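Continued from yesterday's entry.
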Amino acid sequence: MFSEKLEALIPELRAYARMLCRDVTRADDLVQNTCLKAWQHQEDYDANKGPLRAWLFRILRNDFYQQRRSDTRSETREQEELESQLVADCNLEQRSSLSRMLQAIDSLKRSQRDSFLLVVAAGFTYEEAANVLGCSPGTVKSRVSRAREMALGRYFSEAPLADTARRKSSPIDELHDALNRIQIRYTAA
C-alpha cells in the first residue's frame, strides 16, 4: 500500500532534509510538503521508472531548491534563528568537528554535494542516487569521489589527504553517527 511505503521512508526523508536545510523546523516542513505532494500525485508514480524512495527524494530535493531560490529573493532572518546561532553548546569540541565537516560539505559544488549527501549520508546506492539526480551511476561515483576528497581536504585544511587515515575517526564517520542519531530520535518518536 502506498501510504505504508511512504510512512516507512519518512525517517530517511527527515535525515536528508536536515542535511540540506540545517534547520529542524524547515526540514520537517519540507518532509511534510514532500509527503503531501507525493500523496496528491501518487497516480503519477510509476514503479517501472524507479523505486518510490528515489521518487520521494527527488520531490524533496526539488522542493528544497525551489524554496531556496525564493528565500534568496527575500533574505530575512528571524530573531530566533539569530539567537540560536549565538548560543553556545556544551559539547563544543565535538560540535566544532561536525560543524567543520558540514561547512566543508556546504562549500562543495551543488552537484557534488547532492551526490555526496545521497550516497554517503542517506545511504543510496549509486544507481538510486543517479535516478534521483537524473544522471548516470558513473557520474554519481565520480562526483562522490571528488566531493569526498574535497570535503576532507577542506576539513583538514592544511593537512594532506594522506594524513587523514592516521586520525582516530573520520569526519565522514562522525557525519554518519550524527545522521544515525537523528534517525533513531525520529523512529523512536
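--- second protein ---
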Amino acid sequence: MRRRAERQRETRERIVRATVALHEEIGPRATTIQAIADRAGVERLTVYRHFPDEVTLFAACSGHFMADHPPPDPETWSQIEDPVERARRALAAFYAYYRTVERMFASVLRDAETLPAMKAITDRFEELLDSIRDDLASGFRLRGGRRKRLAAALGHGLRFRTWQSLAAEGLSDSESARMIGECARSLASR
C-alpha cells in the first residue's frame, strides 16, 4: 500500500511538472492532455485520474510553480519608514521577480483571458498585488482623490505588464522602480 501511494505521488508530480513546463513553453491554452501525458510518460487516462478537470490541474500547477518561484516577501520593505523608498524597494523586488518568471507569466496572462479556470488563479495573484498596493499607499497618509490617484499609480507600477512594457523600452529594473517611485512622490506632494 505504501509503495503504491508513493508511485501515485510520483506520477502526479511528473504530470504537474510536465504541465508546468508546457504552460511555460506554449501556454495553457495550447497545452493538451495528450501532450501532458507524453511529457510525463503516462497515458491520457492517468492524467484524468489525477486531475479530472482544468481547475484541479491548474491549481496543482500554480501551487508547484509558486512554491518554486515565491513572490517577493513584503517583510523586505515593510520596515522602511520613507514611503517613497518603501514603494521603490517593493517595485524593484517585483521587477526582479518578474524577470525570473517572465516566460511563464506572459503565457499564463495571455491565456487567462480565454480560460476561466486560469483566470481564477491569476485573479488571486492580482489580489496579492492589490494588497501590497494598499499597504504601500497607506504609508503616504493621503485621503480622497489624492490617495486614489496614488494607489492607481502604485497598482499600475506593480503589474507584470507594466514591468514588461518598461523593460521593452530599455529601462533597467532599478530605473523603472525609481521612475514609478518618483511618480508616487509627485502625486503625494501635489
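The two ends are 68 Å apart (CA to CA). The mean pLDDT is 96. Will compare against the first tomorrow.
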